[in-house]
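To whoever is on call:

I kicked off a structure prediction for a single chain this morning and the downstream step that reads the tokens threw a length-mismatch warning. I double-checked the sequence; it's 158 residues and nothing unusual in it as far as I can see. Pasting both halves so you can look.
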Amino acid sequence: MSIFQVNRFRWKLAWRAVASGFGTGYLPFMPGTFGSLLALPLWYLGGGSGIAHFAMLAAVLMLSVPAAGVEMAETGEKDPSSVVIDEVAGMLLAATGIPWGWKPVLMLFLLFRFFDIVKIGPAAWANERKGAAYVVADDLVAGVYAHLSYRGIAWLTG
């Protein structure tokens, strides 16, 4: 094996680790739920707003599409369940501008999981398309739905 093949293997392995949430996506049950949980420490560290949160969100977004593409190519699946970086991105997007606390965490997590599973409107449209960008896009839409729902509920309950 040449040095180029070894390096290509290492890069592929690194991209697959990112796509799977460092192995979380290979869990035999509820990988999306566990992938969503991976966003919680990032939300806590970033505080939901400010430079740290936006830097983490930007980094996850920049890594998510290429990582999902590598995992899709390796598995041969349109939307492999092993790809959970999209859940991390969607959950972080949902948490943008919302301070950390047990009530917001619980409510946003449940709202995000609901919208990620149900896939209505643009999320359903993105889910029907092929390509790594669409694998990520449907979770970003679910994140927007969860964020807006959270804001509406918070406003109504004052």
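Update from on-call: the warning came from a stale cache, not from the record. Cleared it. Sanity check on the structure: The chain has a mean pLDDT of 94.
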